[in-house]
Amino acid sequence: MKPLLKLLPLFLLFFSCQKQYTSLTIQEELLSNLEKLNQEVRAFEKVANENPNQNQLQKSFETSRIAYKKIEWAVEYFTPDPARFINGPALDELEVEENKFLSPSGFQVIEELIYPHYSSSNSRTLKREIAVLKGLIAQVKEHLSVITISPDYVIDASKMEVYRILTLGITGFDSPIANQSIPEAKASLYSLKAVLEKLNTHNSKTKALLFDLIDQANTFCDSNTNFNSFDRATFIKEYLNPISEKLVQFQQDNTIKNVAKTNAINPDAKTLFEKNTFNVNAFIPSQEYAYSRAKADLGKKLFYDSSLSKDRRRNCATCHNPELAFTDGQKTNRSLNGISLPRNTPTLTYASLQNAQFWDMRQPDLEKQSLDVIQNKDEMHGNLKDNLTRIQGDSAYKKLIKNAFPTVKKLDEWQLQNAIASYVRSLNKFNSKFDQYFSGTSTTFSTEEKLGFNLFAGKAKCATCHFIPLFNGTVPPIYKKTEQEVIGTPQTKNGKIIDQDLGRFTQYKMAQLKHAFKTPTLRNITQTGPYMHNGVFKTLEEVVTFYNEGGGEGNGIAVENQTLPSDKLNLSLAEQKSLVAFMKTLSDAK
Which of 360, 384, 361 is CA-nearest to residue 371? Predict the structure, then answer.
């Protein structure tokens, strides 16, 4: 026994000296991964300082981007201000109310400097942009070091990241030239698995199913990393949608509460493609304007009331015909005197899911939009205030008013505006063939329609402006900003002169806004022609041809500040036909 007793202290000493490893918290791991990103960016900077060749730069850049994608879920969610400059579009950030702009920075600016080809003449700019990127990462670190990351925020951020992968990631929005979207999507999904693993949860079955889906999705990404040929339709239906569903189930199983906030996406929605996914009240001026069916019923009657116009010959439906998806079928609208107006009448369907109204975005909400039209001397030349007494005394209106505003004793102008806007908010059916296909109900896509969707969300780059699934310019997954674009629309179909309408520049005299127009929804697109703000194209085929050539610039039109890439898409005739076939699936069922 004595030899054994002599060994015991040595035994205890050996094991007491062993380092005790403990699992990192979510925040600690996040900060560790943030430091890894910082190291990769520093390595990228070192490459840029050493007279590099193109391949070295691009490889180091791609490694840095993958490192960013592993923490994107948190950076975008918890630090949105620096995030928009770390990985936002390489376009000026406009603050129109202050008449100023912020120059772009970050990964996408750097991407333009080194892809598809790198020139040493860009060396100085490249080094400066890398230095800016390092500063932005430092801002993120400072913020993430002091916040509390609770399970409800982790779940909410994870949901947003899945939606971001679907709407911005695999479409090429944030990798427009390098086309590294598929490997980056894999990195983003992998990061979600890692963070969710760290949550203290009691239900292992749902977690196991969720993690298995993420593994399958990543295997699918590995099977085809080519941006143009990647099957996005299958990836969304068989992987991203089920992952979204399992995330919601995982949250419910573990009784993790929803984050208290007004959001465009219903927190209980299983996927982006459910009828109840989007919340119209996220786009209202204030809570007293909240949507109700009773308000919509009152608004519908007002919508068809010609007494609101000065000569009582025109109502809202005159120019927004329900049979034409609430458009008028004309090249451009006509004034009360029959004179052609400069702009095409846009659809009112899904107009409630935007943060700006009219082609020039001059009104922020539907309440102000309705008042603008009714008072416009060329459109209705009416006055809501003058109609208050008549409407409140009308027997047909009385019950509708009582149901819509039960506590109101005397009707006010804002309530009429709110009622009309509420009717417009009721025009979001979400029952098209597209909706049925991606929500997993009974409809299937034809081979041509599926190819068209994959082109739309991939090679043709349509979804980088017309974001899935609203197909307008309201930026996912937060949906708080609606974008405008300068695409160089011509005066005539085959003309070489840009249309003279200055668009948003009329309201805000900023050079970047010359000929800028809101990105409209493509839902119900087959019923809403002619197309563009000036109705210059009669058919969808003509529109696709215009974009295939690179917009205005690509078609030989002088455009000062085109935001649409001017390079050709190189779509074959068969691909163009498939693209049109897909867009036809966006028509609501009757």
Answer: 384
